Amino acid sequence: MEPLIGLIVIIAWAALNAVIASKRNRSGLALFALSTVPVLPLIILVSVGTGGNSESMAWAAFASPLVGFIVSLTMAGGKEAAVRRGQHGDYVRCPSCAEPVRKLATKCRYCASAL
Q1: How many CB atoms lie within 10 A of CB 96?
Q2: Does the predicted model carry a pTM greater than 0.70?
Q3: CA-to-CA distance for 33 and 40, rounded, in angstroms?
């Protein structure tokens, strides 16, 4: 594969990871960095270790975006994080039933208790 095409694929994949993270109320910039920054050091390490095997270097280049993709898919969204931590983004945990409700809500939609 041409190096330029590989670079475009890696950047597009990292952008997809960032969009997924942003949709889950997480830092898209951090996931973009996680998906792109380790690529060059990984390629250099694999190149030195394998004596310049281009196929191994290509697999190493796509390892970092793959890890970023897995991380972005397994991250808890705003509601799930609110249930675990008590508060996250626009959501808080209902003190009565522990379901995620919006911060601005005055009444829980699950158990009808006052917030």
Answers
A1: 13
A2: no
A3: 12
- Beta strands, E only, the chain: 87-88, 91-93, 100-102
Residue 44 corresponds to which tokens in the numbers above? 């250099």
**Residue found under tokens 């699950």:** 110
The residue that leads in pLDDT, 80 or 8, is: 8
CA atoms within 13 A on the CB side of 20: 19
User: Measured between alpha carbons, how far apart are the two ends of the chain, in Å?
Assistant: 57
Give CA–CA dist 43/64, Å, rounded.
10
For residue range 48-100, what is the model confidence (pLDDT) as tens digits? 888 888 888 888 888 889 988 988 888 866 667 666 666 766 788 888 888 88
Rounded Cα distance, 107 and 79, in Å: 17
Phi (first) and psi of residue 112, to 5 degrees: 65, 20
